[in-house]
Design goal:
Length: 141
């Protein structure tokens, strides 16, 4: 019980944020870069004439894996986010670390929304497309 009380004290929360901070920052940066790349791929694929459902399905699989990773990261940090919000004090300089962590966590939620949009638009690209490229018919001699 004492460990639980110490972990939710402002100093305990700050230590947990410090321990997790580098990992969260790196993951947020990488997820943002990968999501931006998936967004660019979506725009490129939208202009592509001969895309097939299979090609779009492969792209959708990548989008969904990235989405699952971002959701897992966000959920893993949820208990610390809740503790940080409970002990949030924006008027005290000691609360700055918790404030920044709360902002980072909210940015992860925004990243989830962005990736959901990309996945949905990728899924919609399958509509009306053949599964594979049709082989050209042979002409009679």
């Amino acid at each position: 019980m004492t460990q639980f009380l110490l972990a939710t004290s402002p100093a305990g929360i700050d230590k947990r944020i410090t321990d997790l901070g580098g990992l969260i920052s790196l993951a947020l940066a990488l997820a943002t870069v990968f999501t931006a790349a998936r967004s660019q791929a979506l725009q490129t694929r939208a202009k592509e004439q001969g895309k097939t459902k299979l090609r779009v399905l492969r792209a959708l699989a990548l989008d969904l894996v990235l989405l699952a990773a971002i959701i897992a990261l966000t959920l893993a940090a949820l208990p610390l986010f809740l503790d940080s919000v409970r002990r949030l004090d924006v008027t005290d300089s000691a609360g700055a670390l918790r404030s920044v962590f709360v902002i980072d966590w909210l940015l992860l939620c925004g990243l989830i929304a962005w990736q959901l949009g990309i996945s949905w638009r990728t899924f919609r690209q399958m509509h009306g497309r053949p599964w594979t490229h049709a082989t050209p018919t042979q002409r009679p001699a």
